[in-house]
Amino acid sequence: MPHRDLAKLCDQYGPLVYFRLGSVDAITTNDPDIICDILRQQDNVFDSRPHTLAAEHLAYGAGDVALAPMGPKWKRLRRICMEHLLTTKRLESFATHRAHEAQHLVRNVWEVSQRGDVVNLRQVLGGFSMNNVTRMLFGKQYLGADSAAQEEATEFLHITHEMFRLLGMIYVGDYLPFWRWIDPNGFEKRMREVEKRIDDFHTKIIEEHRKRSRDECGVEMDFVDVLLGLPGEDGKPHMDDIEIKALIQDMIAAATDTSAVTNEWAMAEVIKHPRVLKKVQQELDNIVGPDRMVMESDLANLNYLRCIVRETFRMHPAGPFLIPHESTRPTEINGYHIPEKTRVFINTHGLGRNSKIWDNVDEFRPERHLLADESRVEISHGADFKILPFSAGKRKCPGAPLGVTLVLMALARLFHCFDWCQPEEHIEIDTNEVYRIAGSNWDPAGDPTFDMSGLTDVTKHSDVLSSSRRVRTL
Ligand code: HEM
C-alpha cells in the first residue's frame, strides 16, 4: 500500500523523503512541521497541480478547480465556487433538502430493520451522500422513492463509479511516456470512453436546465442554474459549457465519495467499540432527547460525536494522500533543495498514524480529541497540523463546511435512532485496509495502476453489514 510504504520510508530516512517516479521528481512527508511549511509558509510555491492523464480526460483537460494548475483559470473557477456555489447563504437554501435526505436515511434503515434484515451501510450511506449532492447540483434525487428516471439514475451511478476509480489511480503512463504510447491494457482508451459518457450526461443536464429556465419561472435554483446565469470570461455573456461541466464534475467527484467513505469508517469503528456507541448515544439523549430528531442546529453542541469524526479522520482520512501538489519554482525545505515541478505526496494517512505525534496510533479513542476546557472540538486541522482532513492553504477544500455537516448529520441520526451491532457474533468487522490493484476487476491481465480512489479512499474495508433496531419514534 503506497501510503504505508511511503510512511515507512519517512520512518527510515527522516520526515522528508525525495524519490523519482520515472522522470518526475517527487517528495513525500507525514510530518506536521514539514506539512505546515509546504501548505502555509510556502503555499505560493506548492499551490499547483501536476498534469496527469486523468486530469486530461476526466476533468476537461484540467479545466476544473481540483486538478487545474495554478493560474488565472483556477483562480476564476475557485472564486465562482466560493462566491456563488458554496456560500453560507446558498448552502442554507438547501437545508430543507438535507433534512429530507436525513429523514430518508433513517426511514431506509428503519424499513430494513423492521424486516429483520441486516443493513448494508455502504449502500445507504452512499445513497445519502449522492442524493444530497445531486439535489444541490441538478435539483434531482437519484436514489430512493422520489428518484429521477431509473435508467438515467443507473447510468449516472455507473459512470460516476467508473470516474471515481479512474481518477484515483496512479497510472504508470503518467511517469513513463513510452507506456502511454503503447497503452498495453487500453487504460487510456477506457478513460476516453468514460470521458465521452460523462460528457453526454452533462450535456443532457445542461440542455434540460436551459429548457426548464425558459419553460418555468420560479423554479428553485440549483448549482447548474446558478452557473448558467453567470457571465463568462472576457466580457462573454455566459460561461462556456465546458467550464460548467468541469465544475459539475468536480463537485460530484469531490463531494460524494469523501463524505460517504468517512461515514462508513466511522460507523464501522463505532460498531466495533460498543463503549463509544453508548457514550455518543448518552450525549444525544442529553442534548437532543427522545422526542425529536437531531437537527443541523444541534451539530455544534455534539462534542463527543465531533471527537468521533475527528478520530475517524485521523485513522481513516478520506484519501490517504492529499491531491498531489506541484512546486512552481525551485525552493528549499529543511535545507534540502527541491526542484521546480516536484510532485508532492502529503501522506495524511501517515500523519494520523505518526507515532511521534500520536500515542497508540491504531487505537480508536475519540476522547483523545476532547479539550481540557471542554470547548467545542473543531473537525478540520488546528494550528498544529496534526490532522488535515480538508488540507490547508490555497488548495484547501472549499466544501469543508458542507462535508462536515453531511458527515455529522448522517452519524447523529443513525446513532440517535438506532442501536447497532455486528450481524452475527462470529463475524468480525474488518477495519483493515484493502489495497486493490485496479484493473484486476477490469481485465484479467491487470493494469499497472494502483487504485488510490483519488480524493476518496484507498482504505476500503470489507462491506459493513450491521443489524439495527429502532429506539426512537420516526
Ligand atoms: C467529508 C467530506 C470531504 C472531505 C474529507 C474533503 C477533503 C478534501 C481534500 C483533502 C482536498 C484536497 C486538498 C489539497 O489537495 O490540498 C479537497 C479538495 C477539494 N474539495 Fe473537498 N472534501 C470533502 C467534501 C467536499 C465537498 C462537499 C465539496 C463541494 C461540494 C468539495 C470540493 C472540493 C474541491 C472543489 C476541491 C479542490 C480544491 C482546489 O484544488 O482548489 N469537497 N477536499
Question: Going by CATH, what is the homologous superfamily?
Answer: Cytochrome P450
Strands, count: 11
Number of domains: 1
How many strands, what sense, and barrel or not for the largest sheet? 4 strands, mixed
H and E order: HEEHHHHHEHHEHHHHHHEEEEHHEEE
Strand order of the biggest β-sheet: 1-2-8-5
**Ligands, deduplicated:** protoporphyrin IX containing FE
Question: Helical stretch count?
Answer: 16
Report the C-alpha radius of gyration, rounded: 22 Å
User: Helicity, in percent?
Assistant: 40-55%
GO molecular function: heme binding; iron ion binding; monooxygenase activity; oxidoreductase activity, acting on paired donors, with incorporation or reduction of molecular oxygen
Cofactor: heme
Keywords: Heme, Iron, Metal-binding, Monooxygenase, Oxidoreductase
Main location: membrane
